[in-house]
Here is the input.
Amino acid sequence: MTAHKLSELGVSNALKSLNSETVSPWVIEDGKLTKLFQFKDFQHAFGFMTMSALYVEKKNHHPEWSNTYNKVKVQLITHDVGGVSEKDFDLAKRMDRFAG
Amino acid sequence: MTAHKLSELGVSNALKSLNSETVSPWVIEDGKLTKLFQFKDFQHAFGFMTMSALYVEKKNHHPEWSNTYNKVKVQLITHDVGGVSEKDFDLAKRMDRFAG
Here is the structure.
Protein backbone atom coordinates (compact mmCIF):
# COMPACT_ATOMS: atom_id res chain seq x y z
CA MET A 1 0.00 0.00 0.00
CA THR A 2 1.23 3.48 -0.85
CA ALA A 3 1.61 5.69 2.19
CA HIS A 4 0.48 9.30 2.38
CA LYS A 5 1.49 11.82 4.99
CA LEU A 6 -1.56 12.72 7.02
CA SER A 7 -2.52 16.35 7.61
CA GLU A 8 -2.70 17.70 11.16
CA LEU A 9 -6.46 17.27 11.07
CA GLY A 10 -6.05 13.76 9.66
CA VAL A 11 -3.68 12.83 12.48
CA SER A 12 -5.98 14.37 15.07
CA ASN A 13 -9.00 12.42 13.82
CA ALA A 14 -7.06 9.17 13.50
CA LEU A 15 -5.71 9.62 17.04
CA LYS A 16 -9.20 10.06 18.43
CA SER A 17 -10.37 6.90 16.71
CA LEU A 18 -7.30 4.93 17.79
CA ASN A 19 -7.42 6.06 21.41
CA SER A 20 -11.13 5.36 21.74
CA GLU A 21 -10.24 1.66 21.93
CA THR A 22 -7.31 1.86 24.33
CA VAL A 23 -6.79 2.70 27.97
CA SER A 24 -3.47 4.51 27.67
CA PRO A 25 -3.29 6.91 24.73
CA TRP A 26 -1.02 7.25 21.76
CA VAL A 27 0.38 10.77 21.39
CA ILE A 28 2.43 12.67 18.84
CA GLU A 29 5.98 13.18 20.19
CA ASP A 30 8.90 14.42 18.05
CA GLY A 31 6.50 14.21 15.09
CA LYS A 32 6.08 10.46 15.69
CA LEU A 33 3.12 8.37 16.81
CA THR A 34 4.27 7.40 20.29
CA LYS A 35 3.19 5.14 23.12
CA LEU A 36 4.77 3.78 26.29
CA PHE A 37 3.55 0.24 26.87
CA GLN A 38 3.89 -1.22 30.34
CA PHE A 39 3.76 -4.95 31.03
CA LYS A 40 3.90 -7.28 34.01
CA ASP A 41 7.53 -8.16 33.48
CA PHE A 42 10.27 -8.62 30.87
CA GLN A 43 8.79 -11.85 29.51
CA HIS A 44 5.55 -10.13 28.66
CA ALA A 45 7.31 -7.06 27.27
CA PHE A 46 9.54 -9.12 25.01
CA GLY A 47 6.65 -11.38 24.01
CA PHE A 48 4.88 -8.26 22.78
CA MET A 49 7.99 -7.19 20.90
CA THR A 50 8.30 -10.61 19.26
CA MET A 51 4.70 -10.62 18.04
CA SER A 52 5.17 -7.09 16.75
CA ALA A 53 8.49 -7.99 15.09
CA LEU A 54 6.92 -10.74 12.98
CA TYR A 55 4.18 -8.37 11.88
CA VAL A 56 6.38 -5.37 11.05
CA GLU A 57 8.83 -7.53 9.12
CA LYS A 58 5.99 -8.90 7.00
CA LYS A 59 4.63 -5.41 6.40
CA ASN A 60 8.14 -4.01 5.92
CA HIS A 61 7.23 -1.11 8.17
CA HIS A 62 9.43 -1.01 11.24
CA PRO A 63 9.12 0.86 14.54
CA GLU A 64 11.65 2.77 16.55
CA TRP A 65 11.38 1.23 19.99
CA SER A 66 13.21 0.86 23.25
CA ASN A 67 12.81 -1.57 26.12
CA THR A 68 13.76 -1.44 29.77
CA TYR A 69 12.56 -4.48 31.72
CA ASN A 70 8.73 -4.29 31.59
CA LYS A 71 8.46 -1.09 29.55
CA VAL A 72 8.44 -0.70 25.77
CA LYS A 73 8.40 2.76 24.21
CA VAL A 74 7.23 2.70 20.60
CA GLN A 75 7.62 5.52 18.06
CA LEU A 76 6.13 5.24 14.59
CA ILE A 77 6.85 7.35 11.52
CA THR A 78 6.80 6.75 7.78
CA HIS A 79 10.18 7.98 6.60
CA ASP A 80 9.21 7.77 2.90
CA VAL A 81 6.60 10.50 3.38
CA GLY A 82 8.39 12.45 6.12
CA GLY A 83 5.59 12.12 8.63
CA VAL A 84 2.88 10.00 10.13
CA SER A 85 0.78 7.97 7.67
CA GLU A 86 -2.05 5.42 7.67
CA LYS A 87 0.65 2.74 7.93
CA ASP A 88 1.60 4.03 11.37
CA PHE A 89 -1.99 4.04 12.57
CA ASP A 90 -2.49 0.51 11.22
CA LEU A 91 0.60 -0.66 13.08
CA ALA A 92 -0.42 1.20 16.26
CA LYS A 93 -3.78 -0.57 16.25
CA ARG A 94 -2.10 -3.96 15.79
CA MET A 95 0.35 -3.29 18.59
CA ASP A 96 -2.50 -2.39 20.93
CA ARG A 97 -4.00 -5.78 20.13
CA PHE A 98 -0.68 -7.61 20.61
CA ALA A 99 -0.32 -5.88 24.00
CA GLY A 100 -3.90 -6.59 25.06
CA MET B 1 26.19 -14.37 41.76
CA THR B 2 26.50 -11.28 43.94
CA ALA B 3 27.37 -8.20 41.93
CA HIS B 4 29.93 -5.62 42.96
CA LYS B 5 30.30 -2.15 41.56
CA LEU B 6 33.60 -1.96 39.73
CA SER B 7 36.06 0.85 40.42
CA GLU B 8 37.13 3.19 37.61
CA LEU B 9 40.30 1.18 37.20
CA GLY B 10 38.32 -2.05 37.28
CA VAL B 11 36.03 -0.78 34.53
CA SER B 12 38.96 0.45 32.49
CA ASN B 13 40.75 -2.91 32.68
CA ALA B 14 37.59 -4.89 31.96
CA LEU B 15 36.87 -2.65 28.95
CA LYS B 16 40.33 -3.27 27.52
CA SER B 17 39.89 -7.01 27.87
CA LEU B 18 36.36 -6.93 26.41
CA ASN B 19 37.26 -4.75 23.45
CA SER B 20 40.33 -6.79 22.57
CA GLU B 21 37.98 -9.40 21.12
CA THR B 22 35.61 -7.11 19.21
CA VAL B 23 35.82 -4.85 16.18
CA SER B 24 33.56 -2.06 17.43
CA PRO B 25 34.18 -1.06 21.02
CA TRP B 26 32.03 -0.90 24.11
CA VAL B 27 32.24 2.48 25.84
CA ILE B 28 30.97 4.01 29.08
CA GLU B 29 28.11 6.43 28.30
CA ASP B 30 25.86 7.93 31.00
CA GLY B 31 27.65 5.64 33.46
CA LYS B 32 26.50 2.58 31.51
CA LEU B 33 28.37 -0.01 29.46
CA THR B 34 27.19 0.95 25.98
CA LYS B 35 27.44 -0.36 22.43
CA LEU B 36 25.72 0.34 19.14
CA PHE B 37 25.35 -2.92 17.20
CA GLN B 38 24.72 -2.72 13.49
CA PHE B 39 23.31 -5.63 11.48
CA LYS B 40 22.45 -6.41 7.88
CA ASP B 41 18.75 -5.79 8.35
CA PHE B 42 15.86 -5.94 10.83
CA GLN B 43 15.72 -9.75 10.80
CA HIS B 44 19.30 -10.01 11.95
CA ALA B 45 18.89 -7.22 14.51
CA PHE B 46 15.81 -8.81 16.04
CA GLY B 47 17.39 -12.26 15.89
CA PHE B 48 20.20 -10.88 18.02
CA MET B 49 17.69 -9.35 20.42
CA THR B 50 15.81 -12.64 20.72
CA MET B 51 18.96 -14.62 21.55
CA SER B 52 19.92 -11.98 24.07
CA ALA B 53 16.40 -11.91 25.57
CA LEU B 54 16.47 -15.62 26.40
CA TYR B 55 19.86 -15.23 28.04
CA VAL B 56 19.08 -12.10 30.08
CA GLU B 57 15.80 -13.57 31.31
CA LYS B 58 17.60 -16.69 32.52
CA LYS B 59 20.25 -14.59 34.25
CA ASN B 60 17.64 -12.10 35.50
CA HIS B 61 19.89 -9.26 34.37
CA HIS B 62 18.19 -7.12 31.74
CA PRO B 63 19.56 -4.52 29.35
CA GLU B 64 18.26 -1.12 28.39
CA TRP B 65 18.14 -1.26 24.60
CA SER B 66 16.60 0.40 21.61
CA ASN B 67 16.17 -0.74 18.03
CA THR B 68 15.69 1.09 14.76
CA TYR B 69 15.63 -1.23 11.76
CA ASN B 70 19.15 -2.74 11.61
CA LYS B 71 20.59 -0.96 14.64
CA VAL B 72 20.46 -2.01 18.30
CA LYS B 73 21.82 0.27 21.00
CA VAL B 74 22.55 -1.59 24.24
CA GLN B 75 23.19 0.00 27.64
CA LEU B 76 24.12 -2.13 30.65
CA ILE B 77 24.12 -1.18 34.30
CA THR B 78 23.59 -3.06 37.57
CA HIS B 79 20.95 -1.04 39.40
CA ASP B 80 21.46 -2.97 42.67
CA VAL B 81 24.99 -1.66 42.99
CA GLY B 82 24.44 1.71 41.31
CA GLY B 83 27.04 1.17 38.63
CA VAL B 84 28.72 -1.20 36.22
CA SER B 85 29.52 -4.66 37.59
CA GLU B 86 30.99 -7.97 36.42
CA LYS B 87 27.44 -8.96 35.45
CA ASP B 88 27.42 -6.24 32.81
CA PHE B 89 30.75 -7.32 31.39
CA ASP B 90 29.61 -10.95 31.32
CA LEU B 91 26.47 -9.93 29.42
CA ALA B 92 28.44 -7.66 27.07
CA LYS B 93 30.72 -10.57 26.16
CA ARG B 94 27.73 -12.83 25.48
CA MET B 95 26.03 -10.21 23.34
CA ASP B 96 29.18 -9.82 21.25
CA ARG B 97 29.01 -13.58 20.62
CA PHE B 98 25.30 -13.48 19.79
CA ALA B 99 25.99 -10.67 17.32
CA GLY B 100 28.99 -12.40 15.78
Summary: The first strand of chain A starts at residue 27 and ends at 29. The domain at 8-99 of chain A is CATH 3.30.1360.20 (Gyrase A; domain 2).
